[in-house]
Amino acid sequence: MIREIKKYPDPILRKRAKEVKEITSEIKKLAEDMIETMLKNERDGVGLAGPQVGVSMRIFIAQTENGPGVFINPKILKKSGKTEKMEEGCLSLPKIWLSVKRAKELEIEAIDINGKKIKTKAEGIFARILQHEIDHLNGILIIDKVNLWQKFKRTLKRSK
Questions:
Q1: Domain 11-159 maps to which CATH number in 3.30.540.10, 3.40.50.300, 3.90.45.10, 3.40.50.150?
Q2: pLDDT, tens digit, 9 for 90 and up, residues 146-160
Q3: Mapping DSSP to helix (H, G, I), strand (E, B) and coil, where does residue 31 land?
Q4: Which positions are annotated as active-site residues?
């Protein structure tokens, strides 16, 4: 089932999501729905977090080289000191693209949909996607990652 994507300023986007205690049939259905929702928005979406579909749980979907992956209760284990700025968009902030600085590489630990603990090393775009989705689980949006001057310039462009 395709779910409605919550848009800013919906308050659920600003809350820290709750840990998933157990992988139930409801969690599996949620993951299926999130994959379907992300694929429907494939042109714009490469990841989707629980809060974005109105569920304050620590679960997200991300496009991997093997197709959509499910990440439950993710934790960042390591981040490289090297960072890069790149334009990012967000399904919860339609038509907004901002230059966001993120670690170039990281390693995360999570649980997959079968309850198995997984470790994932990522770099480049995939590392960026993982950081973006984990931010969602912590109530952080890309608009929180940019400086005031960048926000002001965006406002000026839109008002012209």
A1: 3.90.45.10
A2: 986 666 666 666 666
A3: helix
A4: 133
